[in-house]
Amino acid sequence: xxxxxxxxxxxxxxxxxxxxxxxxxxxxxxxxxxxxxxxxxxxxxxxxxxxxxxxxxxxxxxxxxxxxxxxxxxxxxxxxxxxxxxxxxxxxxxxxxxxxxxxxxxxxxxxxxxxxxxxxxxxxxxxxxxxxxxxxxxxxxxxxxxxxxxxxxxxxxxxxxxxxxxxxxxxxxxxxxxxxxxxxxxxxxxxxxxxxxxxxxxxxxxxxxxxxxxxxxxxxxxxxxxxxxxxxxxxxxxxxxxxxxxxxxxxxxxxxxxxxxxxxxxxxxxxxxxxxxxxxxxxxxxxxxxxxxxxxxxxxxxxxxxxxxxxxxxxxxxxxxxxxxxxxxxxxxxxxxxxxxxxxxxxxxxxxxxxxxxxxxxxxxxxxxxxxxxxxxxxxxxxxxxxxxxxxxxxxxxxxxxxxxxxxxxxxxxxxxxxxxxxxxx
Length: 426
Prior knowledge:
- By secondary structure, this protein is of the alpha/beta class.
- It has an eight-stranded parallel β-sheet.
- It has helices at residues 10-18, 26-36, 51-63, 80-93, 110-118, 128-136, 153-158, 162-171, 186-192, 225-236, 252-262, 286-291, 325-332, 351-361, 413-424, and strands at residues 41-44, 73-76, 101-104, 123-126, 147-150, 176-181, 200-203, 216-221, 245-249, 270-273, 282-283, 297-301, 315-318, 341-346, 366-367.
- Helix 5 (110-118) links the parallel strand 3 (101-104) and strand 4.
């Protein structure tokens, strides 16, 4: 597909060609025509897919000329770094030098920013809380806004910026609303519900071509850390399936917390890797854990951890999604014929990192529903028990089905555990 299909103006087409863009990205070809047609759009695509260029091109096409005193486009970004990236993209593509574009962040005074807006501006690229402050001071007039754009919505949610975004979006009620994000989840949908008018949802998956064999990756979505810990205990209460497990967390304090939550019986089933306290049962060598027949769960902190050999462990659970992608990708690569199940427990905020992991590995995680007999701590999940069913016992602690795990650990048992798990997960 050539750039001509985007029906860009001659100056924009020339600018794209000069920058080396001979063909549009998929997200651009699928969103720009809808934006120019006036439709609200939610665009979901990974990092580097061309989302910023898509809405910059659409904004310049839609506004065309500078003639109003009040801004006609408001673009909200998570922070100064993103603001500068967007301004740079406008600078590269905008040949209409009369178009007035202003960046608003916390690195200037409100008084000076009020003066700059009063002087006249067509496009504002701003962080939400500062834009809201200017709106409340009556400096930012949202009545003339034609395009209201939210970029990197997943980061906005992570930073807790929903309130200023929603307030500004509702004030620009005459505008067309566009939202760009790496992942779409419940918190984003809740934020955009009051102001998005039957948006077109366009989702692009761009996975790298996988050149290596990867272990099976499974994903459970949970609302918060408390419920992740509760669900972890629920899973691990089945000692026949989860007979040898590594549980990864981000730091040693969290590892200590998880260890204390799971280790209710001092029977040697649960251990911690390099424990903070001498009284806690643990290992300094993962090979010792593999050979210990009575210990089946090892809690490991990724903090200051170079590598850890996961080979031969039937189940590897990430209670927290590592921010550094290489930490996860190195663990999940299949190094021999032994197979493991990599289970990730992720909140909405962590799903963007999950998407990046999938993009890097060239393979998607298999999303599993929560078991029907499992109820979240706040009771909000749809897996409610029927009135005539017995309530499940609270399993915030591991309830050992046997006094001691007497299984002889055999690395080839990984496949058997995997098959058993698959049969039970429905």
